[in-house]
Amino acid sequence: MSARDRDGDAVRLHVVTGKGGTGKTTVAASLALALAAGGRTVLLVEVEGRQGIARLFGTRPLPYEERAIAAAPEGGRVCALAVDAESALLEYLEMFYGMRRAGQVLTRFGAVDFATTIAPGMRDVLLTGKATEAVRRREGDRRRGGRDADGRRHVYDAVVVDAPPTGRIAQFLNVNAEVAGLARVGPVRNHADKVMATLRSARTAVHFVTVLEEMPAQETLDGIGEIRAAGLNVGSLIVNMVRPPFFAEPVLREVAEGSFDTGALVRGVKAAGLEDAEETARALAQEVAEHAQRVAGESGIRARLDGLDLTRLELPLLSRGVGPEELDELAERLREQGV
């Protein structure tokens, strides 16, 4: 997972997905900061309309406009964009048809909302189209969506997309293939082909965020299979909110085998001068048993994830919450692991 230079063959479009509650937006923001280190410029794109990126960075809600949102080490910077279907459609009509005014009329009559409601795939076409256009865009382009093979440098070294959850990611990314099958010729077909060419190229990778719990892990395994079946590239597996065990392996093994010395725990509590030593010791022993059970369950999930032929990155649980300082810390953890 890297962005070696502005025009190299490294991955340039990083799609980040994960089950709800796994912290995929936090991971996407941290990844953007990590990739921007060393003087690079990275665009962080939000497509779900939740303004999660703005909250993480402590800024006002993001408009449909690319703007700098954070600095990275050695002169790097992260820009952010919150994509909405209506603005993307107006830009699309202007870009390919010169019909922005007509699009504004459609908006006033509610046609855009109507179209994206009865045909949800239309919304995904617009969102993926905007993200891939940012990947292809080069400095000096007079109109967006233009050719990118003339040697000019890309505007962004990498684009990171905070994408929909794993249950919808394959449909979200593959929607333009369905559009291409319906529109045999014309600008719509050409646009769909261009989007899918970017998504299926070696420049794009889909990264999965999970935590060491059964349901997120299973949804991750299923999502990886769906992405591969769609002919898209799976990138890294990012295990988020990792908690280190509180006790050494021998203690956890004793608890699992039922040979944990509760009597020694009682004596220790008494030596500490605590009241109700036996009751306190029983409560502590119960907590130790629950902790050992959690660690054992996480070990089992790790073993299942070990079967995936993927680079695995890990990020710690931050009990104090996540803000700009914590994002910098997580980005540094990613860089230490090779991002």
TrEMBL record:
Classification via Pfam families: ArsA_ATPase
Ranges in a coiled coil: none
Positions of the ArsA/GET3 Anion-transporting ATPase-like domain: 13-179
Superkingdom of the organism of origin: Bacteria
PANTHER family found in the cross-reference section: ARSENICAL PUMP-DRIVING ATPASE ARSENITE-TRANSLOCATING ATPASE, ATPASE RV3679-RELATED
The protein, known as: ArsA-related P-loop ATPase
Source species of the chain: Streptomonospora arabica
